[in-house]
Write a structure and sequence with these properties.
The complex is a heterotrimer of chains A (239), B (112) and C (601). Chain A is of the alpha+beta class. Chain A is built from eight helices and seven strands, in the order ββαβββββααααααα. In chain A, the strands form two sheets. Chain A has a five-stranded mixed beta sheet with strand order 2-1-5-3-4. The longest helix of chain A is centred in the C-terminal third of the chain and has 18 residues. The mean pLDDT of chain A is 93. Chain B has one domain: 3 helical TM bundles of succinate and fumarate reductases. Chain B is built from four helices and no strands. The model of chain B has no long low-confidence stretch (mean pLDDT 85). Chain C is of the alpha/beta class. The chains are: A alpha+beta (239), B mainly alpha (112), C alpha/beta (601). At the A-C interface, α1, β6, α2, α3 and α5 of A face β1, α3, α4 and α9 of C.
């Protein structure tokens, strides 16, 4: 079978050289070859200096998010054959400082994660057994709990680049995750946090964050929080 | 930097946008009615009618709000220092005030 | 596409500022190594006991392998219509029977009695379990369990639990009234600091910069997970290299029962990505090339069929493939059939599996058969410790998959690994915190710290400066392939002896490894070589233990000794590190109320 060409944006702050693209040839041995397999092939057989993150190789840990042929996605669940080309261009996640090659510094992403109180604030003291949650209430969570914090949406969003204080799609989705949870007792404080100038109102509906590899929909969550705020401010009332 | 809820500016921006899309059409339609050049008598008639003058005041105010708030929102997208934000905000208020004053002078100072 | 900007620093970092000679070092009352479920639960327990804690993890905690758990976590809650008569005693019985009686029964009882409160606790913390119609935590049937007691969150329980546990560490970190809880993501622990028979800290390397640092602490908890990556055909994450087992092993702490490696019956053909046991628990069928439910043809699985324990199902699938009733290609496989469950049930309870099948095998379980084969899944063995999670070294604790308490014995039941992390994570944290209470902070670098730092530094320097040596990747490849081929589901003396000889040869060849890259920051080649040394020693302990144990018990099946031999082998293997490889000793299994019996399902 033919080879694929991996064009990778290289950068090593120690080398003193600016960022540059380097091309590698990767044999397409099997049709299931993923971009991550290709990167591992390069690391183990061609260039031992290549740097990238990976862990689960099954699209659940969020380590290997990168920009592949025009889209932010996970290297592990992107099959080379699905890209319909043998020329693959890989860059690190955008808007975040590059530590080396495809490894970016995700500190600001995590800072925003921690800013939104990403934990359940129970509305009542713990019962002896589990809190009761109806199947319908649990179903509300289906569309918000699968986030793997890979950073694809955050890097795709143009507002996170220009506005450093903007919470960004992932953290806003995290707010919605708890606002949608019937067991949480801090809905009001959560939506009020999202009400500031760098919360939901800063979203410009670019919809670039809809590149989520887990097929989550941050704009839906942002709209959900906006609707709740609107209801609260215009009609008054608790939640 | 504004504190508290950003819901109101967001909501007003949309309401003013809706108002403008109707108001601007009325405005243009009135100015260029019938396809021919504006007739002096008709303009005079409008500028002494309290209804029309109120409409123009409203149009001016809403237009200024929409434009300046839009500029402010764009400015917020840039990662600027708080002093730059302050200066820009003051400038926007000044522009708004001066433009509105000029409008008031034109609208109220007209004598046929 | 939007705006696209990369931010690249121009100036380099000042790498390599080693702190020596009485300088201050990072100090925490307790250090937790590993940020998975056991590590985070331990860190929370330490912090709850009002001690400061640092979590050192090779990856960001949310990238840990715990996140990949799919099926569920066991607890006798009795929420299922058929689970009314369930109790901790029945969970304990199933666990001991599942372990083929090699588990220590006091440890199993401890785990079983605490199961319900740990699950309720993490539910109170916000874990989004699936629900029954009454709104209680939903439970499903699992292999080897007498009642449906596996609590699930669709088929992504690991993600649900790990995120909840991490959320709680953030809450603890932010709580002003608490002692410090610090997280050091992307630091690789390479050595223990050992003074006499006391553990006083660790030496770790920051992956971003390559900087070595010595961390001081009153106690250390290892919670670094399994060592699946010593096998080529494993469902484990790429990070599970076993270095976390090797570090205490090098420091003289024995590894227990390493020959017991669990092979999961259903891993996806090719990449060996896990397809949860829940798929069979929900009613999936295993079919051979003739379309038969072949488990009915084997006496040890004819009653329980698809929900027999993993070791039995894995063996029977392998037999089917070896006898030519499987499919050829990719090492042989059979089919998992979920089609009769219907779209609705698959979407509700197995949606993660469907995504995995679509993305990695190109089949849709709603309409297609899933090609599966047994693959390595879990390391039952690990750092030898007692029910208080204490190892032989004072101040060193272990919890989770890296530890061998032992609750899994010769074969772990599905849903028990997550339970172990929660129960023993908490116990390890509490006991470590108790241990350090009363000890003064020792934030100064002592002789032992300097020694450990210097030794690790020399090891890294040696790797970085050596020229013209063998490539680490080729040694790794040989190791993983020989383990998969010769220390797999079926084992026999000749193959095991060959495997052991091969591992020993690889250990010698490793001494001449040279790297392809000599930088310090984000040097993946260096990281791989450092971890490979640990993997080799762990693989050596596995092969040595397997060769020596002349019986078949649980996951360890010797074709030359196909019977369980309680007379001679009802005992734990202890592997001690030596220059020439593992030195084996044996110790007794702690019995309890469950009597020995033949294991049939």
């Amino acid at each position: 079978m033919a080879d694929a060409t991996f064009k990778i944006l290289r950068f090593d702050p120690d080398s003193g050289k600016g960022p540059y693209f380097q091309a590698f040839r990767v044999p397409l041995e099997n049709k299931g070859l993923t971009v991550l397999d290709g990167l591992n092939h390069i690391l183990e057989n061609i260039d031992g200096s290549l740097a990238f993150r990976s862990s689960c190789r099954a699209a659940v840990c969020g380590s290997c998010a990168m920009h592949i042929n025009g889209k932010h996605r996970l290297a592990c669940n992107t099959q080379v054959s699905s890209l319909n080309t043998q020329s693959i261009t890989i860059r690190p996640l955008a808007h975040l400082e590059v530590e080396k090659d495809l490894c970016v510094n995700m500190d600001q992403f995590w800072e925003k994660y921690e800013l939104v109180r990403p934990y359940l604030v129970p509305g009542s003291p713990p019962p002896e057994k589990e809190r009761i949650q109806s199947q319908e209430d649990r179903e509300e969570l289906n569309v918000v709990i699968d986030c793997i914090q890979c950073g694809c949406c955050y890097s795709a969003c143009p507002v996170t680049l220009s506005s450093k204080e903007y919470l960004g799609p992932a953290a806003l989705l995290k707010i919605d995750r708890f606002v949608s949870d019937s067991r949480d007792g801090a809905h009001v404080q959560r939506i009020e946090q999202a009400d500031g100038p760098y919360g939901v109102w800063r979203c410009h509906n670019v919809f670039a964050c809809q590149c989520c590899p887990k097929e989550l929909d941050p704009p839906r969550s942002i709209a959900h929080v906006k609707r709740r705020l609107m209801r609260r401010r215009l009609l008054g009332g608790g939640k | 930097m504004t504190c508290g809820s950003s819901l109101w500016p967001w909501l007003l921006q949309r309401i003013s946008g809706l108002f403008l899309s109707a108001g601007v059409i009325i405005h243009f339609w009135m100015l260029h009615k019938g396809g021919g050049p504006p007739v002096y008598e008709q303009v005079v008639a409008r500028l002494i009618s309290p209804c029309w003058v109120s409409f123009y005041f409203l149009l001016l105010a809403v237009l200024l709000y929409h434009g300046l708030n839009g500029a402010w929102a764009i400015f917020l997208d840039f990662n600027t220092s708080s002093s730059a934000k302050y200066i820009f905000k003051v400038t926007l208020y000044l522009i708004g005030f001066c433009t509105f004053t000029a409008g008031v002078i034109v609208l109220t100072g007209f004598t046929p | 596409m939007g705006v696209f900007v990369h931010i690249c620093r121009d100036s380099g970092l000042q790498y390599w500022d080693v702190i020596l000679g009485g300088n201050l070092m990072p100090y925490h009352d307790v250090l937790v190594i590993g940020g998975g479920l056991a590590g985070l639960r331990a860190a929370i327990a330490v912090n709850e006991m009002n001690a400061s804690v640092g979590v050192i993890s090779k990856v960001h905690p949310l990238r840990s392998h715990s996140v990949a758990a799919q099926g569920g976590v066991n607890a006798p809650l009795g929420n299922h219509p058929r689970g009314g008569h369930d109790s901790w005693k029945k969970l304990a019985y199933d666990t001991v029977k599942g372990s083929d009686f090699l588990a220590d029964q006091d440890a199993v009882i401890k785990m079983a009695t605490e199961a319900a409160s740990r699950i309720h606790e993490i539910e109170h913390w916000g874990c989004p379990f699936s629900r029954t119609e009454e709104g209680k935590i939903a439970q499903r049937p699992f292999g080897g369990a007498g009642f449906p007691r596996t609590c699930y969150a669709s088929d992504t329980i690991g993600h649900a639990l790990l995120n909840t546990a991490y959320e709680q560490t953030v809450r603890f970190k932010q709580a002003a009234e608490r002692r410090e809880l610090a997280i050091y993501p992307e630091w690789l622990v390479l050595a223990l600091v050992r003074e006499g028979d006391e553990c006083q800290g660790v030496v770790a390397m920051e992956l971003k910069s390559g900087k070595l640092e010595v961390f001081g602490s009153g106690a250390v908890i290892f919670a670094t997970g399994g060592s699946g990556r010593i096998y080529a055909n494993t469902s484990n994450a790429l990070i599970n290299t076993g270095i976390g087992m090797a570090v205490p092993y090098w420091a003289g702490v024995p590894l227990k029962d390493m020959e017991f490696e669990q092979f999961h019956p259903t891993t996806l053909l090719g990449k060996n990505i896990l397809v949860t046991e829940g798929a069979r628990g929900e009613g999936g069928f295993l079919l051979n090339s003739k379309g038969e439910r072949f488990l009915a043809n084997y006496p040890d699985s004819q009653k329980a069929m698809e929900v027999a324990p993993r070791d039995i199902v894995s063996r029977n699938i392998t037999r089917e493939i070896l006898d030519g009733r499987g499919f050829e290609g990719g090492g042989g496989y059979v089919h998992l059939d979920l089609r009769h469950l219907g779209r609705e049930k698959i979407m509700e309870r197995l949606h993660g599996i469907r995504t995995i099948c679509l993305e990695f095998a190109g089949v849709d379980p709603i309409t297609d058969l899933i090609p599966i084969q047994p693959g390595h899944h879990y390391t039952m063995g690990g750092i030898s410790c007692n029910t208080a999670c204490e190892t032989g070294l004072h101040g060193l604790y272990a919890a989770g998959e890296v530890a061998c308490v032992s609750v899994h014995g010769a074969n772990r039941l599905g849903g028990n690994s997550l339970l172990e992390t929660l129960v023993f994570g908490k116990i390890a944290g509490e006991n470590a915190a108790k241990y350090v209470q009363g000890k003064g902070a020792a934030g100064k670098i002592g002789k032992a710290h300097e020694r450990a730092l210097k030794k690790t530094e020399e090891k890294i320097e040696g790797l970085l400066t050596r020229e013209n040596g063998e490539d680490a990747a080729s040694i790794k490849k040989e190791m993983t392939e020989v383990m998969a081929k010769k220390v797999g589901v079926f084992r026999e003396e000749r193959c095991l002896a060959e495997a052991l000889a091969c591992i020993k040869e690889l250990r010698v060849r490793f001494k001449d490894v040279a790297l392809r890259h000599r930088g310090r920051g984000w040097n993946l080649s260096l990281q791989m070589a450092l971890e490979l040394e640990g993997s080799l020693d762990v693989a050596d302990a596995v092969a040595a233990g397997a060769l020596s144990r002349e019986e078949s018990r649980g996951s360890h099946f010797r074709t030359d000794f196909p019977k369980r031999d309680d007379e001679k082998w009802l005992k734990h293997t202890l592997a001690f590190y030596s220059e020439d490889g593992a030195r084996l000793q044996y110790c007794d299994v702690r019995p309890g109320p469950v009597r020995l019996e033949e294991r049939k399902y």
